[in-house]
Structures are given as structure tokens and as C-alpha cells.
Design brief:
Layout: E1 10-11, E2 14-15, E3 20-24, E4 30-34, E5 47-48, E6 55-58, H1 61-64, H2 67-72, H3 77-94, H4 102-118, H5 128-134, H6 136-153, H7 159-174, H8 178-199, H9 208-225, H10 237-245, H11 247-264, H12 270-288
Antiparallel strand pairs: 1-5, 2-3, 3-4, 4-6
Length: 290
């Protein structure tokens, strides 16, 4: 996503509503333009001066593939607007840009959730506890999204939807597919079960080391399900040193590796086990320091 382009006007290909229109960029790729009143009394073929554009939503061809037009054909403009506001608020809070694909996935999800709400259809989020605890920052943004939807549309969605929105945000941070995010969340849950059983205590969820461990597991899960885990250390010296120095923690890492193989049919490299060991050692120190 980017700001307006002062070099040329944009030609409308489709009017979504008063404040949103579709167009094409210089490469011919489909984009959405947002600006106050830029679609009011406009028709396809009309030009929009760049100074009237507040935001441009663009998707590369390989990601978009015409999905913008397909998505927006039946979605009300107010749903598009509220999704854009949530995305921009989330990026501001996180201090970084999210994958451009979130504009499609989140807008579609929010519109469908509002439709279900009006039909009194409840869709429980079976991973709500995990999302709330593993992705605390993103869940807070999900709750904020519910406030935005309520304020703009008068619809108060349940916390289950805050969890779903949080997953969309995490997905856009990691640039993973939504199905991968479900698997990654399940992987984190299974890993924490191994850790609790091994050390006999529940990790301190408020500690810095716990937060770092969860972050490590997010990216490890992403590598696992993309089958791009780290290769083993060629000379093996560093890994052998960690295994020897933190022997008990390395045994826990091996148990995690066994669970990953049994549950997901995937094998962790020695390098991944070593990095897990370092995080486990820090996590276990939180308990002994109490």
C-alpha cells in the first residue's frame, strides 16, 4: 500500500462507492483508490487527479489475479472502508506494513462476518484461547477492529471474530496462507504442551523470554509448513557446544522434534533443535529465578 502518485492521473475502471474506485497503475495492475468523494457521480473512464487520492491499495498480479474485482462486486462500500481503516490502524500500531493481500482476505472476512451477524449465525473460534495467548498484540488489534466496526456500522461482533481478525493480521505479518496460520497455531499449542510436561510448570506468560519464545515458534512454524527449515550447522561445533552445555533443555527440544514428526510428519534439523534449546534454556531460567 502506498500514498498518492503526483505524476499522473488515474482512470477509473469501476466505481465502488463515493470514496473508493478501481483503476490500473502504470504497469496495468489492478489497484483500488481511496479518497473523499472521488467516486461521487463518476463513471468508468473518468480521470482522478492524484492529489485527490488519499491511499492506493495494490496487489501484484500473482497475488491478486483479478480477485479485487471479484471480491468487490457484491461487497458494500462501507465494509471496504471499515476494512481499510482497520488495516491502516493495525499497521500504525505495529509500526510496519502488512502483506498487501490482507486487503482482500480481511475485507472478505469482515463482510461475511457482518452478513452472518445479521442472519444470527454464530461461528465459534476453536482457537480463541491460543490466539489470545500466543498473539496478544494482534488479538488486541482484533478487539480494536471490533470497536471500529461497531462505531462505523453499529454491529458488535463477538470476541471470536477478534480472534479471526488477529489471525488475518498475523498471517499478513508472516505472509503465510490462512490454513498455514491454523497449523502454526496448533504447532505452538502442541509445543507448549511438551514444554509444560517436560519442565512440570506452566511458563510465565508475562515474561520477556516467553514472548521471545512464542515469536520464535511463529517463524519456526512458518518455516516448517513451508518446508524451509534451517539446515544443520556444517562444522557442528556450535551446535555440539549448546547440546553439551544445555543438555536438559536440548532433550526437551528433541521431544518437541518428536512431536512435530508425529503430529505433522515433518522433521526438524539439528540447527532448529539448537535454536529451540537456547530459547528453552532462557524460558526454564524464568522458573528457577523465581
Amino acid at each position: 500500500m502506498s500514498g498518492g502518485d503526483n505524476r499522473a492521473a488515474y482512470r477509473i475502471t469501476r466505481v465502488i462507492g463515493n470514496n473508493f474506485v478501481c483503476s490500473n497503475d502504470a504497469k496495468g495492475e489492478e489497484i483500488i483508490l481511496r479518497g473523499l468523494g472521488i467516486g461521487f457521480h463518476k463513471q468508468p473512464g473518468d480521470l482522478i487527479p492524484p492529489q485527490k487520492i488519499e491511499k492506493i491499495y495494490a496487489l501484484p498480479d500473482e497475488e491478486g489475479g483479478g480477485k479485487l474485482q471479484q471480491l468487490l462486486r457484491d461487497i458494500p462500500e462501507q465494509h471496504v472502508a471499515v476494512s481499510a481503516e482497520i488495516i491502516e490502524a493495525s499497521e500504525a500500531a505495529l509500526g510496519r506494513s502488512l502483506s498487501k493481500n490482507i486487503f482482500i482476505t480481511l475485507t472478505d472476512h469482515i463482510s461475511f462476518a457482518i452478513e452472518r451477524f445479521h442472519k444470527n449465525i454464530r461461528y465459534p473460534n476453536s482457537l480463541l484461547w491460543e490466539i489470545r495467548n500466543f498473539y496478544a498484540e494482534e488479538f488486541a488489534l482484533g478487539k480494536r477492529a471490533l470497536d471500529i466496526i461497531d462505531a462505523r456500522l453499529g454491529v458488535r461482533l463477538p470476541d471470536d471474530e477478534a480472534g479471526f481478525i488477529a489471525l488475518h493480521i498475523v498471517n499478513a505479518e508472516l505472509e503465510s496462507g490462512m490454513s498455514d496460520m491454523v497449523h502454526i497455531t496448533e504447532f505452538i499449542r502442541e509445543t507448549l504442551l511438551v514444554v509444560e510436561q517436560y519442565y512440570g510448570v506452566h511458563p510465565d506468560e508475562g515474561s520477556v523470554n516467553y514472548g521471545r519464545f512464542i515469536t520464535h515458534l511463529k517463524f519456526l512454524g512458518q518455516r516448517i509448513f513451508r518446508k524451509k527449515t534451517l539446515a544443520s550447522d556444517k562444522d557442528g561445533f556450535w551446535g555440539e557446544m549448546i547440546q553439551s552445555r544445555y543438555r536438559q533443555d536440548y532433550l526437551c527440544a528433541q521431544q518437541i522434534g518428536t512431536r512435530v514428526r508425529e503430529q505433522f510428519g515433518l522433521t526438524l534439523s539439528t540447527e532448529e533443535l539448537v535454536f529451540l534449546t537456547i530459547h528453552l534454556h532462557r524460558l526454564s531460567n524464568d522458573q528457577t529465578d523465581d
